[in-house]
C-alpha cells in the first residue's frame, strides 16, 4: 500500500473511533440567540414580552432533534403516536422528560420542527448554518398571512414566555434538524 493511502486509511479508521476530532464546528448558542432575536423582534411588534430561554426546553428540544437525526427525518409523531400532532401524546412525552407546563388560558406548549440542508466546507460552519436556519424562520414568518399558521402563532402566542431551541446536524447528509419548544411557565418535576 502506498504511504499516502496508508495515512488516509489510518485517518478514516481513527475518525470512526474519535469522530469529534473530524466533526464540523458551529456555535449552537449563537444560532439559538439569533432565533431568539428574530422571534423577539416579531413579538415586539405586538407589544409582547421577549421569550426567555428555558434550559429544560433546550433539553427536550435536543432530545427530539437528536432522535429525529438518528432516524433521518423529523415529524411530531412520538413512537406510540398515530396522529401527526397528537397534543396529549406529546404532553405525555414531555412528562416522561420530567417537564410539564402551567396551564394559561387553555394553553400550555407548542412544538415547531423542520429539517433542511446546508453546505459548508469551512472549519466553522456557524454562518452557513445560520443562513439555512434563517430560511426555516422565514418559512414560519410567511404563515402570518395564511389561515392555517401554527408556527407563526407559536412565535407570537401571548401566553408563552419560554422557549427551547435545538439544532442537530447530520454531517454525512448535510442536514440539520431543528426543534423549537415554546411554552408557558415550565414546571420541572423532581
Topology at a glance:
Blueprint: H1 3-17, H2 28-44, E1 52-53, H3 55-71, H4 87-96, E2 99-101, E3 109-117, H5 126-142, H6 150-156, E4 162-170, E5 175-183, E6 186-188
Parallel strand pairs: 1-4
Antiparallel strand pairs: 2-6, 3-5, 4-5
Helix pairs in contact: 2-5
Throw out a few tags for this protein.
4-stranded mixed β-sheet; 6 helices; 190 residues; disordered N terminus; alpha+beta
Short description:
By secondary structure, this protein is of the alpha+beta class. It is 44% helix and 18% strand.
Describe the structure in your own words.
The chain is α+β, with helices and mostly antiparallel strands and 190 residues long. It is built from six helices and six strands. The strands form two sheets. Strands 1-4-5-3 form a four-stranded mixed β-sheet, with helices on both faces. A two-stranded antiparallel sheet has the order 2-6. β4 (162-170) and β5 (175-183) form a beta hairpin. α2 runs parallel beside α5. The longest helix is centred in the first third of the chain and has 17 residues, at 28-44. The radius of gyration is 19 Å and the shape is globular. The relative contact order is 0.22. Mean pLDDT is 87; it is low at 1-22.
Low-confidence stretches: 1-22
Strand numbers in spatial order across the main sheet: 1-4-5-3
| Share in helix | 40-55%
Sequence of secondary-structure elements: HHEHHEEHHEEE
Beta-strand percent range? 15-25%
Shape: globular
**CA gyration radius, whole angstroms:** 19 Å
Q: How far apart, in Å, are the first and last alpha carbons?
A: 58 Å
Average pLDDT level:
87
Q: What is the tally of helical segments?
A: 6
Which secondary-structure class do the elements indicate?
A: alpha+beta
Question: What does the main sheet amount to?
Answer: 4 strands, mixed
**Count of beta strands:** 6
Amino acid at each position: 500500500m502506498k504511504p499516502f493511502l496508508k495515512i488516509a486509511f489510518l485517518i478514516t479508521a481513527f475518525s470512526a473511533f474519535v469522530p469529534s476530532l473530524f466533526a464540523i464546528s458551529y456555535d449552537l448558542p449563537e444560532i439559538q440567540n439569533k432565533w431568539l432575536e428574530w422571534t423577539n423582534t416579531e413579538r415586539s411588534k405586538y407589544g409582547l414580552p421577549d421569550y426567555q430561554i428555558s434550559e429544560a426546553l433546550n433539553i427536550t428540544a435536543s432530545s427530539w432533534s437528536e432522535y429525529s437525526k438518528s432516524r433521518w427525518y423529523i415529524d411530531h409523531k412520538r413512537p406510540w403516536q398515530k396522529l401527526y400532532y397528537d397534543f396529549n401524546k406529546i404532553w405525555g412525552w414531555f412528562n416522561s422528560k420530567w417537564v410539564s407546563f402551567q396551564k394559561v388560558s387553555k394553553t400550555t406548549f407548542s412544538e415547531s420542527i423542520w429539517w433542511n440542508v446546508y453546505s459548508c466546507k469551512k472549519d466553522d460552519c456557524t454562518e452557513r448554518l445560520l443562513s439555512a436556519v434563517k430560511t426555516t424562520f422565514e418559512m414560519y414568518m410567511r404563515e402570518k398571512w395564511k389561515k392555517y399558521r401554527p408556527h407563526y402563532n407559536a412565535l407570537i402566542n401571548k401566553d408563552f414566555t419560554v422557549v427551547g431551541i435545538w439544532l442537530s446536524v447530520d454531517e454525512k447528509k448535510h442536514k440539520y434538524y431543528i426543534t423549537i419548544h415554546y411554552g408557558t411557565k415550565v414546571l420541572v418535576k423532581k
